[in-house]
Hints:
By secondary structure, the protein is mainly alpha-helical. It has helices at 19-44, 48-62, 71-78, 82-94, 116-137, 142-164; strands at 98-102, 110-114. Helix 2 packs across helix 4 (82-94) and helix 3 packs across helix 4. The N and C termini lie far apart (43 Å).
Amino acid sequence: MSGSGTPTPPPPGDDPTGLQSFAALLRRMNAEFNRIAYEFAQAQGLHLTDMQALIAVLDADTDPAGEPMTPGRLRKQLNLTSGAVTACLDRLEQAGHIRRVRAADDRRVVHLHYAQAARSLAREYFRPLARSTDRARGRFTPEELAVVVRFLTEMNEELLLLRQGAPPEVRHQPEG
Protein backbone atom coordinates (compact mmCIF):
# COMPACT_ATOMS: atom_id res chain seq x y z
CA MET A 1 0.00 0.00 0.00
CA SER A 2 1.27 3.45 -0.75
CA GLY A 3 0.39 6.59 1.15
CA SER A 4 -0.33 9.91 -0.46
CA GLY A 5 1.79 11.80 2.06
CA THR A 6 -0.67 14.69 2.10
CA PRO A 7 -2.18 15.76 5.40
CA THR A 8 -5.89 15.23 5.87
CA PRO A 9 -7.72 18.56 5.63
CA PRO A 10 -10.07 19.51 8.45
CA PRO A 11 -13.77 18.74 8.03
CA PRO A 12 -15.65 21.36 6.00
CA GLY A 13 -18.16 23.77 7.44
CA ASP A 14 -18.53 25.30 10.85
CA ASP A 15 -20.21 22.27 12.41
CA PRO A 16 -17.76 19.34 12.69
CA THR A 17 -20.64 16.96 13.46
CA GLY A 18 -23.00 18.36 10.84
CA LEU A 19 -24.23 16.47 7.80
CA GLN A 20 -21.82 18.23 5.42
CA SER A 21 -18.82 17.31 7.57
CA PHE A 22 -19.98 13.70 7.94
CA ALA A 23 -20.54 13.40 4.20
CA ALA A 24 -17.09 14.78 3.38
CA LEU A 25 -15.33 12.57 5.93
CA LEU A 26 -17.19 9.44 4.81
CA ARG A 27 -16.38 10.22 1.14
CA ARG A 28 -12.71 10.72 2.00
CA MET A 29 -12.53 7.48 3.95
CA ASN A 30 -14.39 5.58 1.23
CA ALA A 31 -12.04 6.99 -1.44
CA GLU A 32 -9.00 5.82 0.54
CA PHE A 33 -10.47 2.35 1.08
CA ASN A 34 -11.28 2.14 -2.63
CA ARG A 35 -7.74 3.21 -3.55
CA ILE A 36 -6.25 0.50 -1.33
CA ALA A 37 -8.65 -2.11 -2.72
CA TYR A 38 -7.82 -1.01 -6.28
CA GLU A 39 -4.08 -1.38 -5.60
CA PHE A 40 -4.64 -4.89 -4.24
CA ALA A 41 -6.82 -5.78 -7.23
CA GLN A 42 -4.17 -4.48 -9.64
CA ALA A 43 -1.44 -6.43 -7.85
CA GLN A 44 -3.54 -9.60 -8.16
CA GLY A 45 -4.63 -9.01 -11.77
CA LEU A 46 -8.25 -8.60 -10.68
CA HIS A 47 -11.07 -6.22 -11.57
CA LEU A 48 -12.68 -3.97 -8.96
CA THR A 49 -15.85 -6.05 -9.28
CA ASP A 50 -13.73 -9.07 -8.33
CA MET A 51 -12.68 -7.23 -5.17
CA GLN A 52 -16.29 -6.45 -4.30
CA ALA A 53 -17.12 -10.11 -4.79
CA LEU A 54 -14.17 -11.20 -2.62
CA ILE A 55 -15.28 -8.86 0.15
CA ALA A 56 -18.84 -10.23 -0.05
CA VAL A 57 -17.57 -13.83 0.13
CA LEU A 58 -15.25 -12.98 3.03
CA ASP A 59 -18.03 -11.23 4.93
CA ALA A 60 -20.34 -14.23 4.42
CA ASP A 61 -17.58 -16.63 5.52
CA THR A 62 -16.84 -14.69 8.70
CA ASP A 63 -20.43 -13.94 9.73
CA PRO A 64 -21.26 -16.55 12.40
CA ALA A 65 -25.00 -15.96 11.97
CA GLY A 66 -24.88 -15.77 8.19
CA GLU A 67 -25.26 -18.36 5.52
CA PRO A 68 -22.60 -19.12 2.91
CA MET A 69 -22.48 -16.87 -0.13
CA THR A 70 -24.03 -18.27 -3.32
CA PRO A 71 -23.72 -17.00 -6.89
CA GLY A 72 -27.37 -15.88 -6.76
CA ARG A 73 -26.92 -13.88 -3.56
CA LEU A 74 -23.74 -12.38 -4.94
CA ARG A 75 -25.54 -11.38 -8.15
CA LYS A 76 -28.20 -9.55 -6.14
CA GLN A 77 -25.72 -7.96 -3.73
CA LEU A 78 -23.48 -6.62 -6.51
CA ASN A 79 -26.37 -5.91 -8.91
CA LEU A 80 -24.76 -7.90 -11.73
CA THR A 81 -26.08 -10.14 -14.46
CA SER A 82 -25.74 -13.91 -14.12
CA GLY A 83 -23.14 -13.90 -16.87
CA ALA A 84 -21.09 -11.19 -15.17
CA VAL A 85 -21.15 -13.10 -11.87
CA THR A 86 -20.08 -16.30 -13.62
CA ALA A 87 -17.17 -14.52 -15.34
CA CYS A 88 -16.15 -12.90 -12.04
CA LEU A 89 -16.27 -16.20 -10.15
CA ASP A 90 -14.34 -17.94 -12.92
CA ARG A 91 -11.56 -15.32 -12.64
CA LEU A 92 -11.50 -15.54 -8.84
CA GLU A 93 -11.44 -19.33 -8.83
CA GLN A 94 -8.76 -19.51 -11.52
CA ALA A 95 -6.62 -17.03 -9.54
CA GLY A 96 -7.05 -19.18 -6.40
CA HIS A 97 -9.05 -16.64 -4.40
CA ILE A 98 -12.28 -18.60 -3.96
CA ARG A 99 -13.54 -22.16 -3.85
CA ARG A 100 -16.92 -23.31 -5.17
CA VAL A 101 -18.38 -26.05 -2.99
CA ARG A 102 -21.62 -27.91 -3.64
CA ALA A 103 -24.00 -27.98 -0.69
CA ALA A 104 -24.19 -31.38 0.97
CA ASP A 105 -27.97 -31.27 1.33
CA ASP A 106 -28.69 -30.00 -2.21
CA ARG A 107 -26.04 -30.58 -4.87
CA ARG A 108 -27.66 -27.94 -7.09
CA VAL A 109 -26.64 -25.22 -4.62
CA VAL A 110 -23.10 -23.83 -4.86
CA HIS A 111 -21.50 -22.14 -1.87
CA LEU A 112 -18.62 -19.72 -2.35
CA HIS A 113 -15.74 -19.66 0.12
CA TYR A 114 -12.62 -17.54 0.39
CA ALA A 115 -9.61 -19.83 -0.25
CA GLN A 116 -7.24 -20.07 2.73
CA ALA A 117 -4.11 -19.22 0.70
CA ALA A 118 -5.82 -16.12 -0.70
CA ARG A 119 -7.00 -15.15 2.77
CA SER A 120 -3.38 -15.28 3.99
CA LEU A 121 -2.23 -13.23 0.99
CA ALA A 122 -4.89 -10.56 1.65
CA ARG A 123 -4.13 -10.55 5.38
CA GLU A 124 -0.47 -9.85 4.64
CA TYR A 125 -1.27 -7.14 2.08
CA PHE A 126 -3.77 -5.36 4.31
CA ARG A 127 -1.72 -5.68 7.52
CA PRO A 128 -0.58 -2.00 7.33
CA LEU A 129 -4.23 -0.94 7.08
CA ALA A 130 -5.05 -3.10 10.11
CA ARG A 131 -2.20 -1.50 12.07
CA SER A 132 -3.38 1.99 11.08
CA THR A 133 -6.92 1.13 12.12
CA ASP A 134 -5.68 -0.20 15.44
CA ARG A 135 -3.60 2.96 16.06
CA ALA A 136 -6.64 5.13 15.34
CA ARG A 137 -8.83 2.97 17.63
CA GLY A 138 -6.22 3.32 20.37
CA ARG A 139 -6.83 7.06 20.51
CA PHE A 140 -10.42 6.54 21.69
CA THR A 141 -11.95 5.31 24.90
CA PRO A 142 -14.07 2.14 24.88
CA GLU A 143 -17.15 4.31 25.33
CA GLU A 144 -16.24 6.46 22.32
CA LEU A 145 -15.59 3.36 20.23
CA ALA A 146 -19.00 1.99 21.22
CA VAL A 147 -20.58 5.16 19.78
CA VAL A 148 -18.53 4.85 16.58
CA VAL A 149 -19.58 1.20 16.21
CA ARG A 150 -23.21 2.16 16.80
CA PHE A 151 -22.98 4.92 14.16
CA LEU A 152 -21.34 2.61 11.60
CA THR A 153 -23.93 -0.10 12.28
CA GLU A 154 -26.79 2.36 11.82
CA MET A 155 -25.16 3.80 8.69
CA ASN A 156 -24.75 0.34 7.17
CA GLU A 157 -28.39 -0.49 7.95
CA GLU A 158 -29.54 2.75 6.33
CA LEU A 159 -27.41 2.10 3.24
CA LEU A 160 -28.83 -1.41 2.92
CA LEU A 161 -32.37 -0.11 3.21
CA LEU A 162 -31.61 2.62 0.68
CA ARG A 163 -30.17 0.05 -1.77
CA GLN A 164 -33.23 -2.14 -1.27
CA GLY A 165 -35.49 0.81 -2.02
CA ALA A 166 -37.20 0.91 1.38
CA PRO A 167 -39.27 4.07 1.82
CA PRO A 168 -38.08 6.46 4.57
CA GLU A 169 -41.02 5.64 6.84
CA VAL A 170 -39.97 1.97 6.93
CA ARG A 171 -36.43 2.76 8.02
CA HIS A 172 -35.39 2.59 11.66
CA GLN A 173 -36.33 5.67 13.62
CA PRO A 174 -34.17 6.58 16.62
CA GLU A 175 -35.71 5.87 19.98
CA GLY A 176 -36.23 8.68 22.32
